[in-house]
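Our working data are protein records whose layout never changes between entries. An example says more than a description, so a record of this kind follows.
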Amino acid sequence: MEHVVFHDGIEIFDCVEFDPALRRTDTAADLAFLVMELHGADRPDLAEEVISAYGAAGGDPGDAALLSFYATYRALVRAKLAYLDANALPEDSAERDHARSDGDRLFALAERFAWRARLPLVLVICGIAASGKTEVARNLARASGLAHLSSDPLRKRLAGLTPHEHAPLERYSDEFSRRTYRALGQETTEAIRRDGGALVDATFRRRRDRDAFREGLDTDPGLVLFIECRAPTRVLLQRAETRARRADSTSDAAPADVAAQLEAFDPLDEIDPQRHVALRTDRSLVEIVDDLHALLDTRL
């Protein structure tokens, strides 16, 4: 609320004060404004301190999801104002670029709070090798701030290899895969306790792999949503061929492995249909992520 006091005693309040209906709101909405500002200033620690102190003083700040919902709204309003400011400034001016950058920053902050409002949640992003699951997981990790947990680097870490070293065939045995997926479940449990959620990236192509993941996962199964990435065979093979030529890839899957996985992928029949979403990935990443957001908010 703007409040200006002049020397002659005249007090001016923000014009919203003329309508009681506009200035009476949930206290969580007001608290979320400060929480949003503190996160925007890269001081989430102070935001948590404010929330804790407010509760200790007898206030009811609401749960984390409610505060995140209101913080999303507050950040979006601020982002809109920044974009409006940018449009009103001369083109190719430093001020316009600064206002637009501020809008982009606030919009990204709003998106991160929107993810926090969905928590607790674990997204298992699975599918045939080269189905695009890692690209989707990386994009969501950047937007949400959640941990991106992948079976490929984990398998190699358990084998004593660097992420870009090729794992020998014995490291893909049934027993070593079971060990890898169980450890992936344990890492997911730690991420839930620390952050409220995680993005888990692995093929999960066999029922026994999914069972091993559940063995290591110490949380409510209802928090886990399986996102199965799918694409036409020709797209999968083209991606695998392209990836095989890249030195920075952590995946060992060659085109022949993709073909083999297509023949031996255990359907996710044991997964509750309400916790299983099929996602076509043979299109732009923007379209994929937009559809995923819509599916999440419809189902959760």
